[in-house]
Amino acid sequence: MCGSGTTIDVCKEESRRVIGYDISPVRPDIIQNDARKILLEDNSVDMVFIDSPYGENIKYSNHPNCIGKIPCEDERFLEELEKVINESYRILKPGKVFRMGHFRYVEKKKVHPSRLQIIPNTR
Ligand SMILES: C[S@@+](CC[C@H](N)C(=O)[O-])C[C@H]1O[C@@H](n2cnc3c(N)ncnc32)[C@H](O)[C@@H]1O
């Protein structure tokens, strides 16, 4: 879910090892992959950083598996994001960092709140 790849750029500037995935990559250093099935071993990374779609407010791509095609009011939207979070948890080393950007958005004066609830797991 790394979109235009700004996260990759920041990691490289800080000399961090980084792997960027997106369902619809826009540049060659982003790997085409669905965030619900990440091609990494269990407990293998120090940080997962996700900037998820906020609903269908923006057209991200035509890819049929783009979660951004699902309206945020639809229960399936949260179900699919939950799969992404669970997959992130699987690849994260115990005690390491998960960071997810997920916001409410306003469209035609209607506020779409984020309904995501994250309960910390003290693994
Ligand atoms: C909010 S944008 C990320 C914006 C990014 N931070 C930037 O600076 O451009 C959400 C991204 O999630 C991607 N995405 C949607 N569904 C996905 C999926 N199933 N697996 C991986 N990426 C997905 C979209 O293609 C889009 O690039």
The biggest beta sheet reads: 2 strands, parallel
Low-confidence stretches: none
Termini separation: 25 Å
Provide the gyration radius in Å.
15 Å
Bound molecules: S-adenosylmethionine
Number of discrete domains: 1
Helix proportion: 10-25%
Strand order of the largest sheet: 1-2
Chain oligomer state: single chain
Average pLDDT? 88
Q: How many beta-strand elements?
A: 6
Structural class comes to alpha/beta
Helices and strands, in order, run as HEEEHEEE
Strand content: 15-25%
Structure description:
The chain is an alpha/beta fold and 123 residues long. It has one domain. The chain is 20% helix and 24% strand. A two-stranded parallel ribbon has the order 1-2. A two-stranded parallel ribbon has the order 3-4. 14% of the residues are buried. The model has no long low-confidence stretch (mean pLDDT 88). Residues 1-4, 6, 21-24, 34-36, 51-53, 60-61, 65-68 line the site of S-adenosylmethionine. The site of S-adenosylmethionine has 21 residues, from strand 1.
Layout of helices and strands:
Elements (H helix, E strand, L loop, with lengths): L5 H8 L6 E3 L7 E3 L12 E7 L23 H17 E10 L3 E3 L2 E3 L11
Parallel strand pairs: 1-2, 3-4
Antiparallel strand pairs: 5-6
The chain binds S-adenosylmethionine (SAM).
